[in-house]
Design a protein that fits this description.
Length: 258
Amino acid sequence: MIKKLRDATRDFRAVFGALSGSWLWLQLLKEKLHQQGGLFSVSVPGVKHPIWLRAGTSDVEVFCQIFVRRELAFFNSREAKYIIDAGANIGLTSVFLANRCPNAKIDALEVEPDNLRVMQLNCAPYPNIQVVAKGLWHGAAHIKIANPSAESWAFFVHETTEDDPAAIAAVGVLQLMEQRKQAAIDFLKVDIEGSEVELFSGGNKPWLDAVRVLAVELHDRFRPGCSAALAEAVSGRDAVTSQHGEYHVYQFGAGAPA
């Protein structure tokens, strides 16, 4: 029994220490006290405000990806001014980065209503996070969720018309920069469930000139062409590449800000 407990809490203890890590692991067990979709909160060492999760969903796995396995921990800059979190889900990446990069304005984009509801709870205490109920696309357009019954981290979209009752606004990277009056993007995280094809297809993307660090989760497993579109877009650019968990990372030019 003790060995099983040690194994279950190993990653938590490695990141947060023996007592704090074990306590955080125990907090996540509150999920079992709620019906599916029920909200519960956990307090994370080093994070200013409690984090809200939904029981019986993929939220706990996303939480572990960001806060325990720390797949985006390579980026840490008090000098960062502007971050885009595309496919923000319930806002955990935005919260993680807001705590590490307190001087950055963060646009957190998400399209699914229930994800947005929880993201509002998680991001509300952080004035530097702006929740944007839009999808990231190749430019201004309207999209709709193609699989509304999917797990909360697996919604994908396709383009539709403005008069579609299920239409959601989509925005391009340059539009976001113009709206926020930002000339550069210190960190662009892209986890948009296959819409990498629309975002990166078409060869050279001038807006990439403004990106310092790009982290992309690719979804070729259900949308062939994602990797090819990204490879085409970054082709010929001076970049240091690396892999951090599920993210393919490109540090352009001088790389990540220190």
